[in-house]
Structure prediction request, 302 residues.
Amino acid sequence: MADNIKVSVIIPTKNRKKILRKSLQALNNQSYDYNKFEIIIIDDGSSEDNKTMIRKINLKPEVNYIYQKNTGPAQARNRGIKLARGEYIVFIDDDIIVNRNFLKSHMKNHKSNDNVIVHGPVIYTNDLENPRNTEKKISDFSNAYFATGNASIKKDHLKKAGLFDSRFNEYGWEDLELGTRLKKLNLKPVQEKEARGYHLKHEFSTQDIPNIKNRERQRGRMAVLYHDINSSFAVKASTLYWKPFMVILEILTIGKWPQKKAVNRLITYLHEKNLNSLRNFFLYFVRLDSYLLGLKEGYKNS
Prediction:
C-alpha cells in the first residue's frame, strides 16, 4: 500500500537497457521489505524499449516508470523527487548494480539521525556477469559531499535545499552544485561500506572516442554554469575554470594537437597492440582538450 512506502529509489536512465536490467534485478533481490520501497525510473528520452523490459522482470517492489523527452539528469531526478512517496530518497545511476543488503544498510544510518547524507562505495568493475567479485580499489575513493551514484537522504532536506538546478541540462556537476546547498543545512556525510554499488566500467573501443569528446565538452560547459552559481576557490579548483588553470590547459594542448587525426590513429594502434597505459595517456589529453573546448563554449554562452 502507498502508506507503507518509506524509501523511494530514483534512477534516471537513457539508452542503457542491458545494464539497467541488471540494476533492477539487483533491487529485486533486496533484504529490505519490498512493501516499504518503490522504484522510480525516469527515462530521459531513450530510443530503447525500456518499458517492456521492465515489465518482463516482474519486480516485487512498486515501480513507477516515466518516459519524457530528454531534459538532462537534473530535471529527471527532480521529477523523480516530486513523484516520490517515500520519506527517504535513494539515488543510484542506471549502471549501478547493488548488493543484497544495499537498502537495509542505507536505512540503518537514518534510524538514529535524520540529518545525514549516506554514501555507499561505488566500485568500478569490468565484470558485468559477476560484479560482486570485484574488490574496492583506491581509485574508487570519492570525497564528494553529495554524489548521486550511490546516496540516500531525507526528502525534506532536498526540498529545503531547492532540488537540483534545472539549468544543468547536460552531463556533469549538478549533484556537486546541489551538495554546496545541502552543506548549508549542516547535514553530516556518512560512509556506509555495506551499501555497495558496482559501477560498470565499459571496455574501451576506438569507436567511443567521439562520445568521449562530446561528454567532456558537455562537462566543460556545465562547469562554467557551476562556477557562475558558486565561484568559490574550491569550485575553481575542481572545475579548472580559472585563468591560471586554463593557461596550463592551453599549454598542455597547444595547437589542439590531441584533436589531430594522427592522434586518433595512434590511439587506435596502441589499442590494437594492447599498449593500454600509453593509449590511456593520449586519451587523457584528448579528454582534456575536449573539456577545455567545453569551458570556452560555456564562457561564450554565459
The mean pLDDT is 93. Residues 87 and 165 are 21 Å apart (CA to CA). The radius of gyration is 20 Å. The domain at 2-200 is CATH 3.90.550.10 (Spore Coat Polysaccharide Biosynthesis Protein SpsA; Chain A).
